[in-house]
Amino acid sequence: MGVVTAMRMSVWDRREMICELLALNTELSVSDIAGRLGASEVTVRKDLNALSREGLVERGHGIVRLTHNTGRRYSLQKEMNVNIQLKEQIAVAAVEMVQDGEAVFLGPGSTCGAIMRRLVKKNNIVIITNAVNFEPLLENVSNSRIIFLGGEYSFLQGAVMGIISLDTLNSLNITKFFLGANAISAEDGITSENLNDTGFIKMMIERVKEVIAVADHTKFGKSAAIRLTPINKVNKIISDRGLSEYQQEQIRRQGVDLVLV
């Protein structure tokens, strides 16, 4: 990757670019990053301090590297390009479930991003999300309303969390909650590596009329450290036909409506 000018780059884009550079190069010095971005070392140090607070990078002995658990979550666009056809099929099915006049919530993640890109073209609906990195997807917005929640920004998720987000939800009558998932199993439910997800998602599940998990078949049969919700708290799961018959049977035994596209 050559030199990229940072003059017209937003702070979030610049920090995302730093994560991409580190993912490609394992570790870099501050001067290396500054040179490749075309930014000052002072600016890069501020970005690295912010990324360090988020638990995304670690610094030592003059070099910077991604933390072990950063994984593939640093780039929404890169995520959306993985299994893109499956995600688009899931998104089509999800959007068809949304009726005029509904208020729906989209959680963060690449599959929900694919839903957002299609959902904004519908009329007379309200879309609420805490995924601020969905903003570039808002092309061809029709007559729908879009509400971004406020709160503390998590660069790892590209979303805001915390008390402000939870308080805002109390004033909204949300009918559907589309929940993206990276790890689903009938035994452990929907799990995550991020502890910050738990309170927010539990409140959403208690408030909304219908919880719809969206994930392609590669996310099933996996478990992470933090349990977000058991499978039987989800009303519906949209996935693809690559899901094994065993996984299908285990999910349906939990009383969940499984939609395969």
Description:
- This protein has 261 residues and is an alpha/beta fold.
- Helices cover 35% and strands 21% of the residues.
- The chain is built from 9 helices and 15 strands.
- The strands form 4 sheets. It has a 7-stranded parallel sheet, with helices on both faces.
Order of helices and strands: HEHHEEHHEHEEEEHEEEHEEEHE
- How many helix segments? 9
Largest beta sheet: what is the strand line-up?
6-5-4-9-12-14-15
State the total count of DSSP E strands.
Answer: 15
Q: Given this structure, which CATH class of the largest domain is correct? A: Alpha Beta
Structural class: alpha/beta
**Spans where pLDDT lies below 50 across 5 or more residues:** none
Number of domains: 2
Could you tell me the mean pLDDT?
84
CATH fold annotation of the largest domain:
Rossmann fold
β content, as a range?
15-25%
The backbone outline, from C-alpha atoms, is globular
The major sheet is characterized as: 7 strands, parallel
Rg (CA only): 19 Å
Instruction: Please identify, by name, the CATH architecture of the largest domain.
Output: 3-Layer(aba) Sandwich
What is the helix content?
25-40%
**Terminal residue distance:** 37 Å
